[in-house]
Amino acid sequence: MLINFCIPCLLGLEGFIADELRALEAQNVQAENGRVLFSGDENILARVNICSRFAERVQIVVGSFTAKTFEELFQGTKALEWEQWIGARDAFPVKGYSINSTLFSVRDCQAIIKKAVVERLKSKYNVSWFDETGPVHQIQFAFNKDVVTLLLDTSGAGLHKRGYRPQSNSAPIKETLAASLCAASRLRPYHTLYDPMCGSGTILVEGAMMAMNIAPGLKRNFSCDRWDQMDRSIWAVEKERARDLEKRDCDFFAIGSDISPESVELAKINAQQAGVADKIKISVADVKNFKGETEKGTLICNPPYGERLLDIEEASKLYSVMGKVFERKHGWSYTIISPSETFEQDFGRKADKRRKLYNGMIKCQLFMYFK
Question: Which CATH architecture fits 175-213+247-369?
Answer without folding.
Answer: 3-Layer(aba) Sandwich (3.40)
